[in-house]
Amino acid sequence: MIKVGIIGATGYAGAEIVRLLSEHKEAEVIWYGSKSYTGQRYADVYRNAFHFTDEECMPDDLVKLSKEADVIFTATPQGYLGSVINEEILSNAKVIDLSADFRIKDVSVYEKWYGIKHESPDYIKEAVYGLCEINREDIKGKRLVANPGCYTTCSILTAYPLVKEGLIDPNSLIIDASSGTSGAGRGAKMPNLFCEVNESMKPYGVTTHRHTPEIEEQLSYAAGKDVTVTFTPHLAPMNRGILATEYATLNEGATAEKIKAAYEKHYGNEYFIRLLPDGVYPETKWVEGSNFIDIGFAIDERTNRVVMMGALDNLVKGAAGQAVQNMNIIFDLDEAEGLKKMPMFP
After folding, report:
1. CA separation for the pair 147, 103 (Å, rounded)
2. What DSSP designation does 121 have?
3. CATH of the domain at 300
4. What's the predicted TM-score (pTM) here?
5. Residue 202: helix, strand or coil by DSSP?
6. Is residue 150 among the annotated active site residues?
7. Residue 58 and residue 40: Cα distance in Å, rounded?
8. Are residues 305 and 197 part of one domain?
9. What residues make up the domain containing 117?
């Protein structure tokens, strides 16, 4: 059995890792890390874990944990892993980080968008960007994986085949994306109170959202040149989900048939990417609680643009599920182990 430690186990993403691993045949959680709840029973913090574990929450001691675990998930705020990672930890255990600390290769870009100094830039080059369907071969056996964010996973995967195949002008790409409130984390914040969010939608981080450079960097690799996009996130009155609607100008010769062929070429054999039939467009409810991303598209001949749409659960494929998928790849397991859950409905 793979021994798993989770730092940040009482945040939403950490708790989702716990839930997913409860049915994993090859892994067991041995360390429920939580600075806020150290010494308390995990099942008292999350009652849904009652009867699944009697373990107490442990402190955030990565060095000690690395000597006991085979893999460590760090579901922590930006800057945490960068401030504590070292060679001893990485020599003892694999690390899958759910923060942005090692996603962006240019440290100056990271520091500009996140507003914090990176404390361990020497490990940025080594870290693999854990977008499983794109970087699968690079992830295998690696000791440090940067798990992508929820907005970025949805935004990149939805556009990637068309950028890679040169069917759209990537610099014309506009991404409108909406997220459920769990994407903001479990901490108490006034803008996320029920009365503030219910019966309302609002844009935020307009032109400044920190997932923007992550999307641009990964699509630049696909395009083979620098890409600049317009990305606007929105907060939606729901618990879970990301819905990204993306618009781009078609390059000469691009047709619906070529677009469909591009999606099939890159995703036709991917278990967790569901390409929807013509005229069927993604809904967040169709992927809730699962590691799937649903993708559809439509051509607007009047404007010579394509409309691409993707939906996923921000806590699963957008965080914990993708992290478990990365673990499976690292250890050469069935990639879908622990993740073969049909979406919940309603």
Report:
1. 7
2. G
3. 3.30.360.10
4. 0.96
5. strand
6. yes
7. 8
8. yes
9. 2-126
